Amino acid sequence: MAERKKVTLPTLYKKYREGEAITMLTCYDYPTAYFQDEAGVDMVLVGDSLGMTMLGYDSTLPVTMDDMIRHAQAVRRGAPHVWLIGDMPYMTYQPSVESAIRNAGRFMAEAACDAIKLEGGREMADRMAGIVAAGIPAMGHLGLTPQSASALGGFRLQGKGAETARRIVEDAKILEEAGAYSILLELVPDRVCQVITERANIPIISLGSGPQASGQLLIYHDMFGLYPKFTPKMARVYGNAGEVILNGLKDYVAEVTDGSFPGEENYFGMKDEEFDELKRGLEG
Ligand code: KIV
């Protein structure tokens, strides 16, 4: 089979122009990255959601740049062909344009990412513009922005009312004008997503924001029942790997306990003459 071609900005824009949906998933580790690349996923986000899905924190706020780089490197090793996006963690871009450029550069230099993503609207437009001016493709993130969950009143639908929806619509244009190559819309009403997509000249990606966008994102752990605390409504479950794993682990515990593991096929023997010599050597 021919090797998959590397996904580039022209590849993504071609899909966008031709109305072909762009696929995007989160990913945090090497084996999952390998499978996602094999499956033909276009864009892979090493999200700071790894703070919850991989590190067991209650929010994304404790995640550091070093955490992100370590996971992004593993994902790049597993998925050399995808468009790889490093998610800027909390307080690595909010303090200043300089901090934003410096930390975005780390994703590119240390983890071979293709782009970064940052949360926020008009208040982050100068960070977006600075990163893009430094030659780094940057994705915006509007709607439910988990790093601001406290200010937004929790993990809930954003832009339900006309006034808040209008602000999100305006923010999308501001980010586009600041140079964003794409914008992720998380948990806004489907018609708000449609309006933004129709007004945009860049791909709009939906996470729980309906089908009218230029592409879709899912959190990998939600797709396969791998996050034990909850599965959000916006996720579709494609298989319950969590249940398969838990049942396998219970079987393992039971089989070691009752002696049925390991079986003969799980270990190696030794020739009698070698074993006899070993014993003689130990006795002498
Ligand atoms: O960290 C992440 O996975 C994200 C998604 C929720 C969009 O930013």
Number of distinct beta strands: 8
Largest sheet: spatial strand order:
1-2-3-4-5-6-7-8
> Which segments are poorly predicted (pLDDT under 50) over 5 or more consecutive residues?
none
Overall mean confidence score, pLDDT: 97
Which ligands, by name, code or SMILES, are bound? 3-methyl-2-oxobutanoic acid
The secondary structure category is alpha/beta
The run of helices and strands is HEHEHHEHEHEHHEHEEHHH
Main sheet specs: 8 strands, parallel, barrel
What radius of gyration results from the CA coordinates?
23 Å
From the N-terminal CA to the C-terminal CA, the straight-line distance is 59 Å
**Count of helix runs:** 12
Inertia-based shape: elongated
User: What percentage of amino acids are in beta strands?
Assistant: 5-15%
The helix content is: 40-55%
Overview of this structure, please?
It is a single chain. With 284 residues, this protein is an alpha/beta fold. It has helices spanning 9-17, 30-39, 50-53, 65-78, 97-111, 125-133, 149-152, 162-178, 190-199, 220-223, 241-258, 272-283; strands spanning 22-26, 43-46, 83-87, 115-119, 138-143, 182-186, 204-207, 215-218. Strands 1-2-3-4-5-6-7-8 form an eight-stranded parallel β-barrel, surrounded by six helices. α6 (125-133) links the parallel β4 (115-119) and β5 (138-143). α2 packs across α4 (65-78) and α4 packs parallel to α5 (97-111). The protein starts with 8 loop residues before the first helix and ends with a helix. The protein binds 3-methyl-2-oxobutanoic acid. Residues 26, 45, 47-49, 87, 146, 184, 186, 207, 219 line the site of 3-methyl-2-oxobutanoic acid.
